[in-house]
Write a structure and sequence with these properties.
Length: 120
Amino acid sequence: MHIYSFEKLETWQKARVFRKEIYLLTKKFPKEELFGLTSQLKRSASSIGDCLAEGSARITTKDKAHFITMSYASSIETVNHIIGAFDLEFITEEEYEYFRLKLDEIANKLNALKKAVLKS
């Protein structure tokens, strides 16, 4: 089996784990939120890794950096959804802090990755 370049990225690996954790977290959200916050949170969390994967197939440095920027934007969107989930009391303060720290780590790694790509 071929291993694609994005699969080797620590940032993508962390985004992969994060997506799984978000999917597990949203199982406890109210059923009436299935097409609301639950769907949006799952989509934005998935998009972090999706953009990294898609960007890895791009040819130019500028194009690769653009997809890393989109991944970063998805991580910030996910922060907003985590805040909403906390405000609506779908998650505990402990869960909120855990996921915020995970997102901070991913966002910092995305910024570092973008700088590295632009230097190459």
